[in-house]
Amino acid sequence: MDFFETIMFPFKWLVSIIMVGFHEGLSSIGMPEASGWTWTLSIIGLVLVIRAALIPVFVKQIKAQRGMQLLQPDLKKLQDKYKGKTDQLSRQAMAQEQMAMYKKHGTNPFSACLPMLIQMPFFFALFQVLSGISTARDKGLGIGAMSHDQVVQFDDSTIFGAPLSATLLHNPEGNAFAVYVLSILMILAMTASQFITQKQIMAKNMSEEAMASPFMRQQKMMLYILPIVFGVGGINFPIGVLIYWTTTNLWTMAQQFFVIRRMPTPGSPAAKALAERRAAKGLPALPILGGKKADAEAEAAAAAALIEQKGQRVQPQRKNRKKK
């Protein structure tokens, strides 16, 4: 067993345990054990478990993203300060000031990638489990928590005539036409959902300062690069893996839609739309959230308002004392 296999071993067991648990639960309520739809729902159940467990990480990601967007004006000032200075000392000083700024505001540019990075071991584990189905069947073995009988059931299971373990480039026994059509449709759905998710963030949930920042150029690159990478890689993914990744992308898209509509970034088009909806209903504006800087400004404004109120209350008391 090589180093990568050693690392992936516990993830393969965890992925297979969750899938087998859902499979047995669905079988107990009357779904056929060898049905492709039973295993498909087991894969979707795996997505739901993983994404539900990642909700706290997603909340941290949202806070970090907002912190990064609020930092854009300060980052631009820092870049202007060191503009044209290419010597090593200046670059080192700029990097140190930038890291100190991230630390002060409790954010960093890598936080946005955290949910995807955490998901990747599970994704690779599922890929290894599904890719090894045929080999395990031939050798009379199981994979992780899947028994040999369950391996055989999975290998024989199909949806719309396409085996769940087949890929666009490797389909030894299944309906070739069904595999091609379903694989292409799933790859298109996977890449489109990923593109739409990132596009709605850029179009609706970024402030004007963030839109004009160098950070935005990186976001635009990622907008097109990631779907292309997963689209090209998708030709080697088993259909079961495509189902997993499409489902998790749809979860992300729905999750982002909820966040953008209900908790938008301050100064973004979505925040203005939310303010208009609340105003139309006669509701007060929501407090500005999104990071330590925004919280400090809100606290300062509240303190100023409180001081002003106290000052207004004190004046009549002084007048009364003078009359006495």
Description of the structure:
The structure is a single chain. This protein is mostly helical and 324 residues long. The chain has one domain (3-84, 97-273). Helix content is 75%, strand content 1%. The chain has 13 helices and two strands, in the order αααααααββαααααα. A two-stranded antiparallel sheet has the order 1-2. Strand 1 (158-159) and strand 2 form a beta hairpin. Helix 5 packs antiparallel against helix 11. It is elongated. It starts with a helix and ends with a helix. The model is unreliable at 289-324 (pLDDT under 50).
Question: How many strands in all?
Answer: 2
Which value, in Å, is the CA radius of gyration?
27 Å
Strand content: under 5%
Quaternary state of the chains: single chain
The number of helical runs is 13
Structural classification: mainly alpha
Mean pLDDT: 79
The largest pleated sheet is described as: 2 strands, antiparallel
Provide the helix percentage. over 70%
Return residue spans where pLDDT drops below 50 for at least 5 consecutive residues: 289-324
Q: What is the strand arrangement across the widest sheet?
A: 1-2
- Note the gap between the termini: 93 Å
